[in-house]
Amino acid sequence: MKVNGFAHPAPSDPRRLLSDHLRHDLGLTGTHVGCEHGVCGCCTVLLDGAPVRSCLMLAVQAEGHDVTTIEGLAPGGSQLHPVQQAFHECHGLQCGFCTPGFVMSVVGLLAQHPHPTEEQVDEGIAGNLCRCTGYASIRRAVTRAAVLLAPLTPDPSPLGGEGANPADRSSSGGEGAGTSP
Ligand code: FES
Ligand code: FES
Questions:
Q1: Residues 140 and 168: beta-carbon distance below 8 Å
Q2: Domains of the chain with bracketed CATH
Q3: What's the pLDDT tens digit per position in 85-120?
Q4: C or N: which end of the chain has fewer Cβ atoms within 10 Å?
């Protein structure tokens, strides 16, 4: 499998969970583990660009696929990924334990729906639990991320493509946008 663009051999134990393989064999501890049975979303990574729960997959099931973890979004750490930047600007995190999973889910959501409706935002983060607070700041961060990503996303139609939402393009990201915590 490839992890963050680099080829890695499969673990010798065929029962090794992908989450354990990433954290304990490859040292990619940005992938967090909470419930370990598919409920909390902390362990979300991208498999060929789509969000998956790494605690529900065996590492060998990722053979032949591209896995992206939170470490792969901003290699070297010199510049945040737009979704990370949006969470930072909109205060989309508190304790941060759930944040890598949210960020990976949102990257997958915005790849599928570059200009998501409110319903698509809610659906996109429905599988991630944050125990700290409500989801208002996280929703704002998703909207802000769509704005930040828009110049980087190819627009397939003259009218703005799937789910085009002019409000998204003009949004400033709401309260807190452009500020540091
Ligand atoms: S640790 Fe995988 S969903 Fe909770
Ligand atoms: S910030 Fe999500 S659980 Fe604390």
A1: no
A2: 2-72 (3.10.20.30), 75-170 (1.10.150.120)
A3: 999 999 999 899 999 999 999 999 999 999 999 999
A4: C
